[in-house]
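Now for one protein, fold included:
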Amino acid sequence: MIELDVHTHTVMSGHAYSSLTEMVNEARQKGLKVYGITEHAPNIPGTCKPIYFWNYHVVPRQYGDMRLLLGAELNIMDTKGTLDEDDDYFARLDIRIAGIHRLCWKKGTKEENTEGLVNAIRNPWTDIISHPGDGTADVFFEPVVLASKETGTLLEINNSSMNPNRNKWRKATPNNLEILRLCKKYEVPVILGSDAHIHYDIANYKYLYPLLQEADFPEELIMNTNAEKFLQWLDKHHV
């Protein structure tokens, strides 16, 4: 029973294909109770400029029974865990996802990469880490999961990374299984992310269900199944 998807992109991200209106309408048709649009932050080529995020206040946040969250997918820039914007920018967002992207990531050793990801998790502005298992950076996952448990920052299990049409799935499959098994061991909740770049992919988690089954992952640790629980977590995490 899926009630939310908070990692999606509209045409404003520069390499996606549906408008905000199309995405909102699709999310409503799919019966979501919480829906998030998280455009790429400015260091991704072709995405929107900061003024786009500063004007989020003009967009309604409630559509019938569905709550809309407008945020950004920020870039983890280096092995120090630096995010690519500042506090004034972060404060304008309903939700803040941070992820490693090849186009703006300065990699290091596996130990250094792990330290950078852990530092980003510990940044009080970070709500969710996007696709930590996609293989862009080689990391040790146990410290990452323990940092998630310590801070409450959610780790995403990303559907798009598992798409066989992409070259990420070979690393993403074992990596995501390891993350799920560690999260189950330490009782750490996760969030599923569609990473939809077109409207019909919203809340599409079809590549993740076999992994959840293989890991025998508890439903109560999947945030997408309870919108009210997720919103309570988000409010607490922001405080």
